[in-house]
């Protein structure tokens, strides 16, 4: 596994916008992605050193992810609304997290995508010690509208990956990577604690622009600093059910 990233390139737009509604973003046509950044400090693509294990020989089988139906699209992510127009989902898939927890997080993210309005865009990033933008190994660092066909592509991509990335969880690196893209909202799903230094670094990088919500997989985790991160950055803290 390569070293974790802490400096993704900045994407245009300030990510401002209103609170998310409950309407489905949903047609079935593919929608073009918005302006994004170049690939910097992320897991290598299929032409490089594939250091992140995918499902296949030598890797444990992935946990199947159910394709959500419209009836499942209630609420946003564990009851936290996705406000604004640019949403980032950071999903911890490190050695610190069980396959079951990662499967729940990915399924919840898919359901959340169904609550996004047509004017909202999203980016999914899996992380361990590195970050892995969505559609790896065909890396995409652009935001996308959550049309029906895009949601199905996301489901297939998530289901194809091994549910454990090598290395310890580095939520700070993932946060800094996401914040440089200037999103409206970040959902941080993590099985690892934050340090005071992690909270300070993310809060400084944020500068009050982005709402950061923290969700933990581990009910026994010391969540003091996760609560602090959310409190200092206009977000909410929740535990995964």
Short summary:
The protein contains five helices and seven strands, in the order βαβββααβαβαβ.
Could you characterize what this model shows?
The protein has 241 residues and is of the alpha/beta class. It contains 5 helices and 7 strands; from the N terminus they run E-H-E-E-E-H-H-E-H-E-H-E. It is 24% helix and 14% strand. Strands 1, 2, 3, 4, 5, 6 and 7 form a 7-stranded mixed sheet that branches. The two termini are 31 Å apart.
Number of helices: 5
- Measured distance between first and last alpha carbons: 31 Å
Q: How much β-strand is present in the residues?
A: 5-15%
Record field, number of beta strands: 7
Oligomer: single chain
The gross shape turns out to be globular
Sheet of most strands: 7 strands, mixed
Helicity, as a percent range: 10-25%
Query: Which regions are unreliable across 5 or more consecutive residues at pLDDT < 50?
Result: 1-41, 44-75
Order of helices and strands: EHEEEHHEHEHE
What is the average per-residue confidence, as pLDDT, rounded to a whole number? 74
Instruction: Evaluate the radius of gyration.
Output: 16 Å
Query: Structural class of the secondary elements?
Result: alpha/beta
């Amino acid at each position: 596994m390569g070293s974790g990233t802490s400096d993704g390139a900045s994407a245009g737009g300030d990510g401002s916008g209103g609170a998310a509604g409950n309407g489905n973003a949903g047609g079935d046509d593919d929608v073009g992605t918005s302006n994004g950044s170049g690939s910097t400090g992320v897991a290598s693509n299929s032409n490089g050193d594939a250091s992140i294990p995918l499902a296949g020989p030598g890797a444990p089988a992935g946990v199947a992810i159910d394709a959500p139906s419209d009836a499942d699209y209630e609420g946003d992510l564990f009851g936290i609304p996705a406000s604004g127009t640019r949403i980032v989902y950071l999903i911890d898939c490190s050695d610190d997290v069980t396959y079951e927890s990662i499967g729940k997080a990915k399924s919840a993210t898919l359901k959340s995508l169904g609550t996004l309005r047509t004017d909202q865009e999203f980016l999914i990033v899996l992380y361990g010690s590195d970050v892995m933008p969505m559609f790896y190994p065909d890396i995409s660092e652009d935001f996308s509208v959550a049309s029906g066909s895009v949601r199905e592509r996301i489901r297939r991509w998530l289901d194809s990956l091994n549910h454990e990335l090598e290395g310890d969880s580095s939520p700070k690196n993932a946060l800094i990577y996401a914040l440089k893209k200037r999103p409206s909202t970040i959902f941080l799903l993590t099985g690892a604690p934050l340090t005071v230094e992690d909270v300070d670094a993310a809060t400084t990088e944020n500068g009050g622009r982005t709402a950061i919500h923290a969700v933990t997989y581990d009910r026994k985790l010391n969540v003091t600093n996760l609560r602090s991160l959310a409190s200092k950055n206009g977000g909410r803290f929740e535990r995964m059910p």
